[in-house]
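Weekly sync, protein design subgroup
Attendees: M.S., D.O., the rotation student, P.L. (late)

Item 1: inverse folding check
M.S. brought a backbone from last month's batch and wanted to see whether the design step gives back something sensible before we order anything. D.O. pointed out we never logged the input encoding, so this time it goes straight into the notes. Structure tokens as presented (308 positions):
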């Protein structure tokens, strides 16, 4: 049998936070109860922690995605730029800041972000449910807001991409939005956050994924597979992940898939090497060629995030 993929990897989705230095900027972390499942996220996740988690995994480059930092608009990007500049490994090689696309000063805020040479796009969380408040991660239903939709054009004109973090029931709206902005690249986070893990949830998720996967300007991150919103330590394995990865590979061609760890969030449920190993096992089980695996783990990300 073939050996598991051992080539270079780009991690397209991780966070860093220094809560001693910048803790006041992270309302969501401060709101986590000390006895909550996510309590470990109330600790700083620093450069050395990232290096420890990357160790032995052949992570050659990385992309930092905003950690819901609020206030001091470009503070997170400024901090990350200084970190990347002062460390020989150069992580993170690309930065995805937060931006509010409905802000009055949007154009100026985007132009300000462009002074930081590692910025490649932006992310604003879109998770919304009309009645279930626990499923909301956004201030409003941005996906269905005409002003929000319209303002996406400010990204494409600046060569920025949009990182799309939503729930499966929002995928039909996302298909509309992605279709209407053909010159903008959308990067679906965490395979669309499939929180309903039963057969009905899987079918709904897969239908949405297949629609998104047909759109040439939509890329999907193979990330968030052991996200604590739908699993827990010891409750997952390559076997439980297989059908979700199979659905992803069915819906998206391998040239529009990239790998991401979602650390330290997914670290709540498993180690970096265990998660990576399970994904590689699934890819092998699904008979993805070595070339396809190299594309997903490395080449596609280099192209998508201009990491050359």
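Designed sequence read out in the meeting:
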């Amino acid at each position: 049998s073939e050996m598991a993929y051992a080539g270079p990897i780009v991690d397209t989705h991780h966070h860093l936070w220094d809560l001693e230095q910048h803790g006041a900027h992270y309302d969501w972390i401060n709101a986590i109860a000390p006895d909550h499942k996510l309590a470990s996220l109330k600790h700083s996740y620093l450069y050395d922690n990232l290096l420890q988690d990357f160790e032995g995994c052949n992570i050659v480059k990385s992309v930092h995605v905003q950690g819901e930092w609020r206030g001091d608009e470009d503070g997170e990007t400024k901090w990350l730029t200084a970190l990347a500049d002062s460390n020989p490994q150069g992580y993170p090689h690309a930065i995805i800041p937060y931006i509010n696309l409905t802000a009055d000063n949007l154009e100026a805020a985007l132009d300000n972000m462009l002074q930081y040479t590692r910025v490649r796009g932006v992310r604003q969380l879109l998770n919304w449910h009309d009645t279930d408040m626990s499923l909301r991660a956004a201030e409003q239903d941005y996906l269905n807001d005409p002003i929000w939709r319209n303002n996406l054009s400010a990204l494409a004109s600046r060569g920025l991409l949009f990182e799309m973090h939503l729930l499966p029931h929002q995928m039909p709206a996302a298909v509309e939005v992605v279709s209407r902005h053909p010159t903008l690249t959308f990067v679906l986070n965490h395979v669309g956050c499939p929180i309903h893990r039963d057969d009905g949830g899987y079918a709904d998720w897969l239908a949405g994924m297949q629609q998104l996967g047909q759109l040439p300007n939509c890329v999907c991150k193979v990330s968030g597979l052991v996200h604590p919103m739908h699993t827990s330590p010891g409750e997952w394995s390559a076997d439980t992940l297989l059908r979700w990865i199979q659905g992803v590979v069915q819906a998206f061609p391998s040239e529009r898939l990239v790998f991401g760890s979602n650390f330290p969030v997914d670290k709540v449920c498993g180690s970096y090497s265990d998660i990576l190993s399970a994904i590689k096992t699934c890819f092998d089980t699904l008979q993805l060629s070595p070339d396809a695996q190299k594309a997903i783990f490395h080449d596609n990300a280099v192209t998508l995030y201009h990491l050359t």
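Discussion: The longest helix spans residues 199-213. The chain has a mean pLDDT of 97.
Action: P.L. to compare against the previous round before Friday.
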